Amino acid sequence: MQLSLFTDSIHPALAPTNLTSSLHPIHRWVNFIAGYSPEFVSVCIREAGLSSGDIILDPFGGLGTTPVQSLLDGFSCIACEANPYFADLATAKCQAALGAINPDEVFSTLHQLSPYKGELADIYSADALTFLKKLIPETELRVLVNARLKGLKITPDNKFFYKLVVSVILELTSKSQTDGIYKAPTTKKKSNSFQDALLRVESQIMEDFNLITKKQDINYELIKGSAHLLCQKTSSIASLCITSPPYLNNFDYAEMSRMELYFWGYASSWREITNKVRSILIPNTTTIPIDIKKNHELYAEKLSNEFIEYLKPIINELKVRRNQRAGKKEYYSLVFPYFAEIKKVFIECFRLLKSNADIHVIVGDAYLYGIHIPTGQLTLSLLQEIGFEKTQIKLLRNRGSRWIQSKREGAGTPIGEYWIYGRRP
Question: Cα 142 to the chain's mean position, in Å?
Fold first, then answer.
């Protein structure tokens, strides 16, 4: 199979990026730096030759690129997202794609806000408040807090969309730069007042709403929680899977949303972020819960003997290099858990897909203490072991300057991002 994405849509190097999201209604409201393009989703849908009533699956929903674009293209979707903040915003975008929200209620409420007059310590824990004050001027934070409290009175149909709008304003009012994906309190940027941010967000969203038509013959299900919850779904219900799992040692998907997790009250401390969010994410960084690190070798039981034998030398070398390198990060403890949990999710995808249904995966390689982990090829091997047929892999791009090996202790080989394809027999 050769996706026409590589001949008549966008340049293949843009497929695994979010760089075109700013060109698309709804997607541009808030998108994921590690996400892929809406065009990639549309091309996969077109190539699959779907029929009315077909369902698209995404076990790693992120901020909703696959489900939103599926709905915009006229197809229902089932998605999972473990980060509760991402899941809520993806839900809002899906509702918008169906034309199922009322922006007037949301913006009318926000235009009438005044600053919160009470003690901020009555709203937030000491850890959360200390962090938020580093990022947001207190005058704006007090208006934002009142926005959070007023959200309790928003009608249920609009509560997720309200959260999305306030979250975008929250980011615009922040005075701290985002370093890659993490907030850097000591690195300053120009911030907007609450009112200026509100007008900016309202203008963009209302412009997009003029392009949205209400849809009643399709729907979505966005499961807030681990992708393993897909085990509760009936077999053979999806006609296509389009997804991108967390990359090994790429981003801490909990820390990147720390400001929002604190602001909305999903968590009140670093420990709670680990217990409530990291604990249900695919274990891909060294900030994973301690019990996973301690028991990492047990995850090998979920992998084939061939897979284990390939990974063992890598793990052993990572143990050696840990004691030779600054930071002494326990990268070796990620390898078995990461691939075991990824395999578990793709087994569910295989079960949920109908016969002759396609799966499309975007994933990137990794270097851990200079050791190349060919995640693309290993993911292809997992799909083959599970039973997917007609599998193939294609390099889409070599990753950006922050991953150049002179900066990342690599062996000189660029880190690639890959498109992986398979078909359920």
Answer: 29
pTM recorded for the entire structure: 0.94
Using CA atoms of 366, 20, 220, 386 in order, give the dihedral in degrees to the nearest 10.
-30
Q: What is the pLDDT of residues 337-373, one digit of tens each?
A: 999 999 999 999 999 999 999 999 999 999 888 899 9
- Give the tens place of pLDDT for each residue, 230-246: 999 999 999 999 999 99
Q: List phi, psi (to 5°) of 116.
A: -70, 130
How confident is the model at residue 191, as a pLDDT? 82
Structure confidence by residue, pLDDT tens digits, 368-402: 888 999 999 999 999 999 999 999 999 998 865 44
| Residues in CB range of 380: below 8 A, 6 or more apart | 391, 392, 393, 420
CA–CA gap between residue 124 and residue 263 (Å, rounded): 8
Question: Within 13 A of 247's CA, how many CA atoms are on the CB side?
Answer: 23
